[in-house]
Amino acid sequence: MHTLLKTDPWFASLPEEFAHFLLSSGQCTTLGMNEYVFRNGESDNGLFVLLEGLICISNINLEGEEAILAVLNKGIWFGEVSLIDGAPRTHDARCITESRLLHVPSLCLRQFLADNPVYWQHIAQLVSNKLRLIFSAYEVLQTLPAHERVIRQLLMLGRNYTEQTVSTTRLPINQLILSQLAATSRQTCNQSLKKLAALHIIKLNYQHIEVLDWPALMRLST
After folding, report:
1. Pick from 100, 125, 140: which residue ends a domain?
2. What pLDDT score does 104 carry?
3. 168 and 105, same structural domain?
4. How does DSSP assign the chain, residue by residue?
5. CB 3.0–4.6 Å: which of 36, 41, 70, 80 could bond 57 by disulfide?
6. Cut 0.90: pTM above it
């Protein structure tokens, strides 16, 4: 677990005392597919890091349908906003697949930060990192064509798999989720995926996409 967490730049930069506290105070928990880590409107219940699986951050749109805003990979910390302002959760965090998490409860985390206020700056850094990612993602949505956005999202979803020695990767994401992440219609997303499949870069399957050639996919994004 420690090796995985060290791949995250934020956790890797933490002072040893703070990193040790998070690991020693955290509680490992496993949630099934479609179970919620937290729901929109719930009170702050702590900080989380995803160890295995995929989690989507979403809300319900005006039509009563789930609108997916982001998908979290393993090694990503989340839940820090309510820790800072004490306000209720603004979004749902739902498990796309069975997921294993480390949960640092709010009560002990707040007490630790009250006793060691210097470490609040690292929580602020976590928020700052997320804000930079949001601006970067918004720039992609505003400046790149739909096909390129689909490719970028596939690369982001597979970022924890590209260093593996295996030649293929199974991404448990359906076309509806991918189209929402790429801010395009499902039809346009399907057309882009079919182009990639024709090049033997990906293979389309029910409820998942198999990436056959990561280097080729990365070359298309440059």
Report:
1. 140
2. 98
3. no
4. -HHHHTTSHHHHTS-HHHHHHHHHH-EEEEE-TT-EEE-TTPPP-EEEEEEES-EEEEEE-TTS-EEEEEEEPTT-EE-HHHHHH-PPPSSEEEESS-EEEEEEEHHHHHHHHHH-GGGHHHHHHHHHHHHHHHHHHHHHHHHS-HHHHHHHHHHHHTTTTTTSSSS-EEE---HHHHHHHTTS-HHHHHHHHHHHHHTTSEEEETTEEEES-HHHHHHHT-
5. 70
6. no
Question: Domain total for the chain?
Answer: 2
User: In the chain, pLDDT over 90 holds for what percent of residues?
Assistant: 77
Contact 161, 169 (CB under 8 A): yes
Domain range for residue 19?
A: 1-140
- Other beta carbons within 10 angstroms of residue 201's beta carbon come to 20
Check which CATH number belongs to the domain holding 214 and give it.
Answer: 1.10.10.10
Q: Give the span between the Cα atoms of 180 and 23, in whole angstroms.
A: 34
pLDDT at res. 160: 53
Instruction: Encode pLDDT of 167-188 as tens digits.
Output: 458 888 899 999 999 999 999 9
Residue identified by tokens 């007490």 is 111
